[in-house]
Amino acid sequence: MGDPEGTEGLRALGEQRLGPVLRRREQVQPGTTDQRLLDTEGDSEWVHTDPWRVMRIQSEFVEGFGALAELPSAISVFGSARTALGTPEYDAGVRIGRALVDAGFAVITGGGPGAMEAANKGAREAHGISVGLGIELPFEQGLNQHVDIGVNFRYFFVRKTMFVKYAQGFVVLPGGLGTLDELFEALTLVQTRKVTRFPIVLFGTEYWSGLVDWLRNTVVAQGKASERDLLLFHVTDDVEEAVAMVTKETGH
After folding, report:
1. Beta pairing class for 234-236 and 200-203
2. Where is 123: in which H helix or E strand?
3. Which helix (H) or strand (E) holds 96?
4. Do 110 and 140 touch, CB atoms closer than 8 A?
5. What is the helix (H) or strand (E) element at residue 76, kind and residue range?
6. DSSP code, position 27
7. For a pLDDT cut of 70, what percent of the chain falls above it?
8. What is the rounded CA–CA span in Å between residue 175 and residue 186?
9. What 8-state DSSP symbol labels residue 43?
10. Cα-Cα end-to-end distance for the chain
């Protein structure tokens, strides 16, 4: 019977082929892939290895694509999880969610509390599709009660892909570091033309004015970005204007 791991010559060189993977010298592993698969003894550390994480990542993409593939045109709404119920910012989120549904969009948020909950609430009250894309965090938040379709993710980058792939634009309410991360991710994708016809609306002139001034007076002024990059987003305090900007640029 032939050598299951290769020729004797290759063994002498310390070379081992495991599917598409080549191992040599000290990196040669004992036994075969099937042996390691079928061997029930040993610890469970293998579930924390990088190859296994790849499978988890793949499964998250598959679950996300499957859950969201049949969504109609949608807009992602971002904002702080700390926005309190009954505040003007929360009320604006509800009105934006409702107005987006009235304009024919589904509403996608991060699924958490605060501004995200507000937008989901507005979408649900308008009898639209309310989507929440949650994320595993050390402090459990869970999906808010106004989410109709919810997907929880382990990995931020998978979740970000879903936000962009299944939305035709972003409305960004006042928020913290997570909101800024999502905002600049979107701006970078539009700037580098990884996505096209993708409107980004910053809601709350007073809140965002400092950031806009810094971009103009520091980033652009020092040549780190161009003047036209300031045209990648719009700033408004008006719900109808925000929705109109999204509708106009998406051709919806």
Report:
1. parallel
2. helix 115-125
3. helix 88-102
4. no
5. strand 74-78
6. G
7. 81
8. 15
9. -
10. 66
Amino acid identity of residue 141, one-letter, is Q
Cα distances from 222 to residues 214, 216, 218, 219, 239, in angstroms, run: 11, 9, 6, 5, 34
Mind spelling out the 3-state secondary structure of 142-183?
A: CCCCCCCEEEEECCHHHHHHHHHHCCCCEEECCCCHHHHHHH
Among 78, 128, 72, 121, which Cα is nearest to 100's? Answer: 128
Q: Would you say 89 and 200 are in contact if contact means Cβ atoms under 8 Å apart?
A: no
Residue with token string 């106009």: 248
pLDDT above 60 (res 248): yes
pLDDT, residue 201, reads 97
Residue 89 CB contacts under 8 Å (≥ 6 apart), including other chains: 79, 80, 83, 115, 118, 173, 174, 204
Task: Please tell me whether residue 200 adopts helix, strand or coil conformation.
Answer: strand
- Both tokens assigned to 82: 């700390």
In our burial notation (b when 16+ CB lie closer than 10 A, e otherwise), range 169-183 reads bbbbbbbeebbeebb
Higher-pLDDT residue of 110, 11: 110
Question: Which residues 6+ apart lie within 8 Å of 134 measured at CB?
Answer: 110, 111, 112, 141, 142, 143, 150, 151, 152, 153
> Which three-class secondary structure state does DSSP give residue 235?
strand
As a whole number of angstroms, the distance between CA 156 and CA 160 comes to: 6
* Nearest C-alpha neighbor of 172 from the set 96, 95, 112, 102: 96
Question: Residue 149 is encoded by which pair of tokens?
Answer: 């379709």
Tokens matching residue 145:
């009660």
24-81 pLDDT, tens digit per residue, is: 667 677 766 556 656 656 566 766 677 888 888 899 999 999 999 999 999 999 999 9
